[in-house]
Amino acid sequence: MENTEPLPAHRIDPHAVGQDDIDAYRLLAGDIASGTAVVATRQYGRDIAATVTGFLDVSYDPPTMLVSLYADGRIGEAVAEAGSWALSLLSGGHEGTANWLASPGNPVHGLLSQVPFRRAPASGAAIVEGAIAWFDLRTTAVHPVATHLVVAGEVVAMGGTDDAHAANDPLLHFSREYRHLR
User: Is 22 part of any domain?
Assistant: First the structure.
């Protein structure tokens, strides 16, 4: 049965977005539960990495994923330029790593000095040790969208953990906090 009462709405003029619009959007979009991952690449011989919650699998044939990265941030520029990157899906035990790599103003030198990692077989990017799953990707498309870059990549290598406890405890992001299934 249709309810004909109009929905209360915060209307946005796309040509004049204000701070109130941004704040309302962030609050409502924060209620989208998502996995938490680390995107990493190598640029000029240095590791660049950041925590992300905007990623998804696009296709199984061929295996393809995409990630949304802040265009003016180091990670956005580095991934767009490098042509390859890695995505590590984090478990609940990685909350400290997620916080560290989400912090603005992280150092360029020694960014991963306190994060245990291994190298991805094709890209050489960092894969967080103990990640539930990891994907090594070759960039196939980069699209600027608003303040971000949407980067698509074809999976060239992948793997996962043998730790059943970690595999059953993904690090989730919901309502501006990290959450656990357990």
Answer: no
